[in-house]
Request: fold
Amino acid sequence: MTPVIFVLVILGLVVGTVAGFALKAPLLPDLITEHGRIIDQQLVLTLYITGAIFAIAQLGLAYLIYKHRHRDGVKASYLQGSTKLEYTWTVATLVLFVGLNLMGQGVWAQMHLNEKPARPVNIEVTAMQFKWIFRYPGKDGNLGARAAEYINPAEGNYVGKDPDDANGDDDFQLLSMSVPYGIPVVVDIRSIDVLHGFAVREMRLKQDAVPGLSVNIPFTVEKDGTLEFPLSGNYAADLDKGELPDALKHELNANKLVWKDKASLRALEPGRVWRLTLDPDSINRPYLVKLENGRLNLYRSWYELACMELCGYGHYQMRSQVNVLSPVEYAEFVEKNSP
Amino acid sequence: MSSEAAAEHAVHVHQAPTNPIWRYVFSTDHKVIGIQYWILALVSAFVGMGLSVWFRLHLLNQGHVAQLTDQLSLLVEGSADYNAIKAKIDALQTAWYHMEPSQYLGILTMHGTILVFMVLTTAPMGGFGNYFLPIQVGALDMAFPRLNMLSFWLTFLSFVTLMAAFFVPGGSPNAGWTGYPPLSAVPDSQGNGYQGPGGWGQDLWVLSIAIFCFASLVGAINFIVTTLDLRTKGMTLMRMPLTCWAWFVTAILALLSFAVLLVAGLLLLLDRNLGTSFYVPGDLFVSNKLLVDHKGGSPLLFQHLFWFFGHPEVYIAIVPGMGLASHLLSSFARKPVFGYRAMVYAIFGIGVLGFFVWGHHMFQSGMSPYVAVAFSVMTMVVGVPSAIKTFNWLGTIWGGNIRFQSPMLYALGFVSLFVTGGIGGIFLGQNAVDIYFHDTYFVVGHFHMIMGVAAIFGMFAGTVYWFPKVTGKMMNEPLSQAHFWCTFLGVNVIFIVMHLMGLEGHPRRYSGFAFEFLSSDYMVRMHTIVTHTAIFTASAQVLFLINLVYSLAAGKKAGDNPWESTSLEWATTSPPPFENFKDGVLPEVHHGPYEYSVPDAAKDYIMQHDPPEARPATAPAPH
Reply:
């Protein structure tokens, strides 16, 4: 009886696990960065290879358990090993594991080792218990100098901006991050107190923020948003006028998109693409409404940014968000926020 | 020392003390010390598991709170529905298992520390190793019995120190079991709102680990010397059971890695209390002020030192289980170990390579990205000896005649869990893929699977296998089997589901659901499965406790060799006499450790101390 139960349990384990991953893996969080595609390819390739190893090893175990269960009168073989077999699987696993690993080194080099892109959008990311501060260089493209001695929370100067450095005159800082799509961005990740971890699932980007270090990571966002759901009504005419029709409000609410203050609306490409921003005065959640194949679709252009290195009791709520803007909107964003 | 001289020595010097305090409490007898370590681990395991059930309940609770709060936002304030949901939320927030965020981290830190140090490091090595290494190599005791006693009591002191952290002002430390500075090094940075004398919990935590390191160093020296110098006549290295090889390699790992952790801990203690700056950089801005008394430290230095210990520590936890699994698979499949020599080389390979991969815990830490490439490749290489072991385990039962007694069930469970847990390592060992999985539940699922439950299945296996030897009584077989199935099913569900949560990017060490993607229906459903299964699996451990107590009181009497195994512990009485072998006369070894089903032999097993002629001349030469 025991070997049969064992076989069934292992069968259940293999089927359950493989099914769980097979169903879930295509549903990884939406991918919005260029380098992320290679990371996903490598992840999925690893999933296939390890899935096969997992199934073969577990099923092999189950098979052997059943086949060689105790039976009266059967004597075990006096088999002490097989040098040939052992050499074969040693070399095979070595080649497979190391080969798989080397395939992933390209994207690592792209993110960490290669020269940073020319003339990127620079954003300074400062982590502190328990918030994120994003500083933008303003129109001059240069960030002002910083030093710890200038940190002054009472004046909102968390990053320690040097008041005497003219480069910093048009710098501005915000609690959420906005990036343009299609243009390389370099984030400079740092911390002023303990360790933090900058992580955005959809960007396939993760980097610890370490006090005393400044780590630069380049990335390029490829998409303007993630499809949230198709809209059932045709609101194109109202949207062009900059009005949010009640029916649309109702539809958003029915899909659990609830907002506290107001919504703002503008046409990015009249008759085709509209920017819908919910809660523009507080948390500012940008969406896109796009007319595609005669239908309206709602796209979400903001992503949650999480802290992923333990930083104290507020770790779990150290959140911010990344807003993806069109290059034109981004230029306006810099214009609007520069002092 | 020749065995005759040793026997002589034993008869005259090695007498059991008559005073019970010296015999059972401050004993220098390796068997008593082994049992003491095992009991310490058992108590710690239940404490650690209890903590995990507590925070699992809390997490599920928070998931429900988050979802109800979402519903609330859709309703009109003050309406009947609104008030009903509001009342539900309030009830959940005042449940007995609700934790404040800082308390959650404190409990999480203690859970990890207790299990890694007091269970995974003590039981396989200090417990089983202490009791059985000397008997399996045919010695009267450890090489240094008094050091052995010192090592246990220091470990006990370390345990008490750690437990004290629960009760001091400020509560248990909340920097995680990895205790990364600056959070662990700058008392003000813990920011848990506690205003009294600063953070003794963290100091006690460091102190406890430092004491533990010292105890482990002393223990490791003892194991190494015992293995090298006290083997009985005929017990060549290549005739040692794989359990002994595993303890030997584990001891070498412990010797080299705990020394480093000891230093890391002492420096952290200095940073905390004497104003040094090994890990604390200058210009930190904590608790609303600039920290001016630190300059020039490096938080990454601690991570390097910690993981230089921390990665070998994984092997310290699992290698004894690997040795035992090999031993049991062979014994219960009635077959020699497949590729004994390869197994020995693989254990050594894991031990050596294990010292060159620590950086894979730090891919996203800000260390040099060039170094990350080297660590990543080395990590894949260390997967090879692990794969060799798995193939050889399958090879061992291939062509066998498997007896499905409970030790074998746990050993087979170990192999299955080891495979599942090991697979996760192929993802995490790749620096590129780790960008997505680092610090998610995927990591939590992975290390619990492999160094947690696989190692603990090794302990269960050891307990049922050796219980008859230690107590003279058999454990109850149906209870053991029921416990095995419940636990095996439970841990698979819990930790595979955690892998799936990691695939979704769920961050670890979060005490609440402040993010939208965490309070989704899918994620809360996953949390529900994990919490419910954890409660089920934890409850199933009561079967194990009942079994221990019942078997101790009323278990069937065990003979000297109830499993028909070959190694030397089965050559003596159950339980063994004080001097291990009758009258302290050490057995002489003539055979390899896994002589099962030797063609033309009288029985289907030849014990190691059987006379040379027990092995027929016609049989193929041993490995």
